[in-house]
Predict the 3D structure of the following.
Amino acid sequence: MVKPAIAGGSPVRNTKLYYGHQFVDQADVKAVEEVLTSDYLTCGPKVVELEKKLCALTGAKYAVAVSNGTAALHIAAMAAGVGAGDELITTPITFAASANCALYCGGRPVFADINPNTYNIDPVSVQEKITDHTKAVVAVDFTGQAAPLDELLEICRRKGIVLIEDGAHSIGTKYKGKPVGSIADMTTFSFHPVKTVTGGEGGAVLTNRGDLYEKLLLYRSHGITKDETFYVNESHGSWYHEQIDLGYNYRITDIQCALILSQIDKLSQFAERRRKIVERYNEAFLQIPQLFVQQEIPESDTTRHLYILRLRPEMLTIDRRGFFDAMAAENICCNVHYIPVYWHPYYEKLGYKKGLCPNAEKLYEEMMSLPIYYSLTDRDVDDVIMAVRKLVDYYKK
Ligand SMILES: Cc1ncc(COP(=O)(O)O)c(C=O)c1O
């Protein structure tokens, strides 16, 4: 039974439309099948092939493929030297992992506010939050648009701080003509199924710095090395290896890598479709005064991961929660990215208080994420636009 639409009449769609979905084709299935009958399910050639492909795609010198984007952020924070008493500055409008990586290392996340138009971290706020304890900045390319990397790099260089770009949303994006992955000290990717490219799960850290690369390799796999130039003691023979630091098992399987490799072959197709969807949404919503459209960042040639619909509550008789529910009644299932990280009870327990980042908190109260993914048809996009128009017409002041 389809529920009646809150705004009245029959719903815009009879079937549910979700906000994100992976696209897996026969080439992907074949790539995975080949690995399943090969000699290596993990630690094999597909891992190396993926790392080489990520370097070729981004221009980064080194890539370390890991089990997920959270693991990538954790080892990046470790490689940046974040430890007990250190601070790591990030945005509240992100998935908790961008901040949790500091906590994993015994450090403390510090939240800088966002630019109210682009929704990316604001370099002015970053500057204000820097102390003698700041070790790293994690800048998220929110929705896929590159963070203000030049401004952030300038601040970080001046202060001796490591810049980690959380590129979970932005594989395929270029900043001032350069692909993300080759710009910050380290860039992390996620290959979760809602992301543009998926491996089921998966992640990677990219860097141009050899010293960071060596650390990332160690932390990915227990802190164990088989490279004798790092041995503390004498080798016992060809089986010998040493644990010289404390790391984790953050390895990725060859099965995941094969899927990610095959997906990367479709990245330009994926990017193009996502770009078209953004254009259609922007064109429609720029004509509706009750909506605020996220500013396109001219420096960013963007592969878009999310599309944010933002309400102007002063012009509507309905709030975000009501609008979200009304969209669901139209069978358009949205999501919200993100609850400000420090609003989560765990962070409250650590002493973080509401009010820290007003721009981020205002955005949270007004936004929702609309469907955007490769296989979304023009008809689907029209349905979303029709539902938004219907609700705005019904609820406008
Ligand atoms: C901005 C951001 N950072 C980090 C992550 C963590 O990635 P993963 O889910 O692969 O661990 C995500 C994924 O949801 C994300 O959106």
